[in-house]
Design brief:
With 388 residues, this protein is mainly beta. The protein has helices spanning 212-218, 232-239; strands at 3-5, 14-15, 21-23, 28-29, 41-42, 48-49, 52-60, 64-65, 68-76, 89-91, 99-101, 109-111, 119-122, 127-130, 138-144, 151-153, 161-165, 168-169, 176-177, 183-186, 195-201, 282-284, 287-288, 291-295, 301-305, 310-315, 324-331, 341-342, 347-348, 364-371, 378-387. The chain has two helices and 31 strands. The strands form nine sheets. A six-stranded mixed β-sheet has the order 22-25-27-30-31-29, with no helix packed on it. Strands 1-3-6-8 form a four-stranded parallel β-sheet, with no helix packed on it.
Length: 388
């Protein structure tokens, strides 16, 4: 064993002896100050420093000291149990009660305890002390009760705690209350030796779901309930299918034999039509600037009273393949002027000769015209002339 005094700085000391004792009069050992100079190597075991060791850079295999302050970097190759005893190790930048984290060559950092109930968690790159985010976390507290004990400490989210007395689950609000997140209070004091187990669960919320407020804002409100089973009429109105306004009322009589129907578009009947009787629409046509038009879609019967010489046009006959005919009643003017009529060039008269109109006052002549090729050819016939 070697005994060294700090009166003379020692340099390039290489000691492999064990139980070396260093007395430091100035109460410090610096690498460039009294006691030790630079480049000293200690490879022996159980070296004892009776002062305070302060080092800018120090490498130790095994270290035992009463108080160690490190202002620089400290690398410890091997620290075994009880090697650092009765010591106070102070690391700059780490607050009291902090957890020191860091690995390998990374700098040591401290995580402070934070508020009551916070947990140590990782964000993927660092350790943090923060409030529990809930989820599957649970905490168990177990107590052996004293006589008539009612209050037991536990950290929990209100509404997420179960309490058991000697293995029997207690009813919330009936057997116990837990409203402040820190204590559980039994309604009846426990018996000495009773086992009280408290299970606290972290509350959680499911990600990517709508809250009630978000749902109410996005979807129909209760005041506009589309499925109002209490009132079918209200439900139909809310849906925009009000009977008689938006939709036709249901009628079990699907044949409609006793209902008068008016068709405003062409109807195709592919079977034989058998009617007791039928009516045809009648139209009255007039001339303008010596021109008169008979609209085939306006009726199969027409009347024209002459007021001037006029040229007829037969408009809108059905397409080729559909036969169509109409009758035309021509009334001469009351003054017996004897106005003349020019027929469409497509009219084919018997013997290719058009009839001569009756020229007497108010004389009536009736003609019939038929086509089946879309009006390319009209067959004209005289039904009667000089009718009273």
């Amino acid at each position: 064993m070697a005994l060294f005094d700090s009166g003379t700085p020692l340099a390039n000391v290489a000691l492999s002896d064990t139980f070396n004792t260093w007395r430091v009069r100035t109460n410090q050992i610096n690498t460039q100050a009294a006691g030790l100079a630079s480049n000293n190597t200690f490879t022996g075991t159980n070296n004892i420093f009776n002062g305070t060791l302060q080092a800018t850079t120090a490498n130790f295999t095994t270290l035992q000291a009463d108080a160690i302050d490190f202002d620089g970097d400290l690398t410890v190759d091997d620290v075994t149990a009880n090697t650092v005893t009765s010591a106070s190790i102070v690391v700059s930048g780490i607050t009291a009660n902090s957890i020191i984290v860091g690995a390998g060559a990374s700098s040591a950092t401290g995580v402070s305890p934070g508020a009551t109930g916070q947990v140590l968690t990782s964000n993927g790159s660092a350790w943090l002390s923060q409030a529990s985010t809930g989820g599957s976390e649970s905490y168990r507290y177990q107590y052996t009760a004293t006589a008539a004990q009612t209050t037991f400490s536990a950290t929990y989210d209100v509404g997420f705690v179960d309490v058991f007395l000697n293995g029997i689950k207690l009813l919330v609000s009936t057997d116990f209350t837990a409203t402040n997140g820190s204590t559980v209070v039994l309604a009846t004091g426990a018996t000495v030796g009773d086992i009280v187990d408290i299970m606290a669960f972290g509350s959680f919320s499911v990600a990517d779901v709508y809250s009630q407020a978000a749902s109410n804002a996005r979807f129909a409100q209760l005041s506009n309930n589309l499925s109002d089973l209490a009132s079918a009429t209200t439900a139909r109105t809310n849906l925009g299918v009000e009977i008689g306004t938006d939709v036709q009322a249901f009628d079990a009589d699907t044949t409609k034999n006793d209902v008068s129907n008016t068709f405003t578009v062409d109807q195709a009947i592919t079977a034989e039509l058998k009617a007791d009787s039928y009516n045809e629409a009648h139209q009255t046509v007039t001339s303008t600037s010596n021109a008169t038009t008979v609209n085939c879609e306006a009726g199969n019967s027409a009347t024209h009273t002459l007021t001037e010489n006029t040229t007829f046009t037969f408009a809108n006959p059905p397409a080729t393949g559909t036969a169509f005919s109409f009758s035309l009643k021509i009334v001469q003017d009351s003054g017996a002027t004897g106005y003349a009529v020019t027929w469409p060039a497509a009219v084919d008269w018997p013997a290719a000769t058009a009839p001569t109109l009756t020229a007497t006052a108010s004389a009536v002549d009736v003609f019939v015209f038929a086509t089946h090729d879309g009006g390319t050819t009209w067959y004209g016939f005289t039904a009667g002339q000089a009718l009273a």
